[in-house]
Amino acid sequence: MADDGIRILIAEDNSLLRGVLRDALEEAGMTVVGEAADGLEAVAAAERERPEVVVMDMRMPNLDGIEATGQIAAAEWAMPVVVLSAYDEPQMIEAALSAGAASCLKKGIGLDELIAAVRAAAA
Fold first, then answer.
1. Among 43, 67, 105, 118, which residue carries the largest CB count within 10 Å?
2. Is 119 exposed, middle or buried (0-12, 13-18, 19+ CB in 10 A)?
3. Mean pLDDT of 89-118
4. Integer Cα distance of 21 and 34 in angstroms
5. 42-77 pLDDT per residue, tens
6. What residues does each domain of the chain span?
7. Which of 22, 40, 39 is nearest to 31 (CA)?
8. pLDDT (0 to 100) of residue 87
9. Which residues contact 56 (CB under 8 A, 6 or more apart)?
10. CATH of region 7-122
């Protein structure tokens, strides 16, 4: 499969959604190399695992997804971040993109759209 080898980190505080994302991305031929339940864990896991793409929830405890995205994007080991938001607030989307997100998607999107966004970020 063409996507074998795309290494993904999932940062999502909702464990049920994290599992759904993991299953969908792995079914698409990607490899989930790590999971994080908050922004601090996401930054540490991104540095440790060096995935090709991070799928990041916008709102999480300890360090929100926008701040975590900014830290990942500014690091010497930076990788693309696809941010997921439950909110359709233009200022939040702009903040995520300004922080360095490759894209910002609403959580209500279809899994095919998420997979396409991850593939585009990895390309």
1. 118
2. middle
3. 92
4. 12
5. 999 999 999 999 999 999 999 999 999 999 999 999
6. 7-122
7. 22
8. 81
9. 11, 12, 39, 42, 65, 68, 69, 81, 82, 83, 84, 101
10. 3.40.50.2300
E runs forming strands in 1-123: 7-11, 31-36, 53-57, 81-85, 103-106
Q: Residue 50, by phi and psi: left (phi above 0), alpha (psi -120 to 50) or beta?
A: left
Other Cβ atoms less than 10 A from the Cβ of 16: the count is 8
pLDDT over 50 (residue 1): no
Band of residue 4 on the pLDDT scale cut at 50, 70, 90: low
d(C-alpha 7, C-alpha 122), whole Å: 9
pLDDT above 70 for 15: yes
Token match 């999971």: residue? 35
